[in-house]
Write a structure and sequence with these properties.
By secondary structure, this protein is α+β, with helices and mostly antiparallel strands. It contains eleven helices and five strands. Helix content is 63%, strand content 9%. Helix 3 crosses helix 5, helix 4 runs antiparallel to helix 5 and helix 8 packs antiparallel against helix 10.
């Protein structure tokens, strides 16, 4: 049953097919259900028609029979890693029909009690165009021998450089973009995702600011090390400077630890909660639509339509409730962040006092050949940037709270 995947080397790499693709509409939606091993148990008429397979060919077959051989393995490595961890996942996929033609989908795959449900729509947003370029690069790297795990890390790195702190952030905003593009294409009202999208983007900016502050505080430790070096050269005259450096380093380390507890872009952060809320809200819309579609005879496809409708409705309710939990968590975390930022501003005020002591010592001591003046200048720049990042982080936190309210 499995379509053979040709061996791939650099000479095999060709651009993703664009002109000769299987036609289907933005209004259509694919559905399939598999067991935990990825073996197909059910599907709808759209899946059957576009893939070109008969019902008896799909049931009991591995879902990879529709995988296009030019799809990078790295994307599937990332998908399965997340699904095995019980994490609903969205991914752009290039599939292949029985006649060899390609068709692109944005797939939403969610774990259920006995396997996975997948609903898929036609992509067409600018995000889709960007991902096609990334996939082409990953495919070329795999032809040169890159392992799927390395490709998955490369994919995540590219997404971070594009402004997405995590895959959770990317998949949520990509799905929202595709649902919005779909609504525009078929003349439907925009889905009610604007508030969740605003919260997710504000939370991403919090992650970016926290990462920037973490880098700055690590850099400040190097500044205090240089301050200790200057103090040691001054002998007894440098005891005050040495104490100043110790206090500055102590506070900097404390704030670095605080940031590391709250940054990361995963499900344990504000950004993780906001991204999961957006993704699950959007996934719920598609699951509900597919459930409603199964009341139509034309959607019967492969399997028991009523049983699949119930499964979809249950999944929509389950993940909708999870989205609400994520929204409440994001709102609560944003309020907590505001409290901690106030404490952090207090610490930064203490750092400012220590910096002023350094300035006073610099004025008193004239034996440093300008080294102390340079260090004080570095502390000035550090304090200014930390202050600006704190202000922006506070504003983004208020944005999350407002959007999630």
């Amino acid at each position: 049953m499995t379509l053979p995947e040709p061996s791939r080397d650099a000479s095999d790499i060709i651009p993703f097919p664009q002109d000769d693709e299987v036609p289907f509409g933005f209004d259509e939606i694919f559905f399939s259900r598999t067991d935990s091993r990825g073996v197909i148990g059910a599907g709808n008429s759209v899946f059957q028609r576009v893939s070109g397979y008969e019902a008896e060919q799909l049931i009991g077959a591995p879902h990879r029979i529709v995988r296009h051989p030019l799809m990078p393995r790295a994307a599937f490595h990332l998908l399965w890693d997340r699904l095995k961890a019980g994490r609903p996942t969205g991914v752009y996929v290039c599939n292949r029909s029985t006649d060899g033609r390609a068709y692109w989908v944005f797939a939403v795959v969610v774990p259920i009690r006995d396997g996975f449900l997948s609903v898929r729509i036609k992509p067409g947003s600018p995000t889709f165009a960007r991902v096609r370029d990334i996939y082409a690069d990953l495919l070329a790297a795999e032809a040169q021998g890159a392992a799927p795990v390395a490709g998955a890390e490369d994919l995540l790195g590219r997404l971070r450089r594009d402004g997405f702190p995590s895959y959770d952030s990317f998949q949520a905003q990509a799905l929202a973009a595709e649902i919005g593009n779909r609504a525009d294409a078929v003349g439907l009202p925009a889905p009610a995702l604007a508030a969740a999208l605003t919260a997710a983007r504000s939370a991403d900016r919090i992650e970016i600011e926290l990462a920037g502050m973490r880098h700055l505080f690590r850099k400040s430790i190097m500044i205090t090390t240089n301050l200790r070096i200057v103090a040691s050269r001054l002998g007894g005259d440098g005891r005050a400077l040495s104490a100043i450096a110790d206090n500055y380093a102590l506070l900097s380390n404390e704030m670095t630890r605080w940031i590391e507890k709250r940054a990361g872009g995963s499900n344990g952060s504000i950004a993780g909660s906001a991204a999961e809320n957006l993704f699950l809200q959007a996934a719920k819309l598609l699951l509900e639509e597919m459930s409603a579609n199964f009341t139509q005879d034309a959607e019967a496809g492969v399997g028991d339509p009523e049983a699949e409708r119930v499964r979809l409705a249950e999944a929509a309710a389950h993940y909708g409730a999870r989205a609400e939990d994520c929204k409440r968590r994001a709102r609560s975390d944003a309020a907590d962040l505001e409290t901690h930022l106030a404490q952090m501003r207090h610490h930064v005020g203490a750092l400012d006092s220590i910096r002023m002591l350094s300035r006073i010592e610099s004025a008193v001591l004239r034996k440093t050949d300008g080294a102390l003046d340079e260090i004080v200048g570095q502390l000035d720049a550090f304090q200014d940037e930390i202050g600006e990042r704190l202000h922006r982080t506070d504003a983004h936190g208020r944005g999350v709270r407002a959007a999630a309210a």
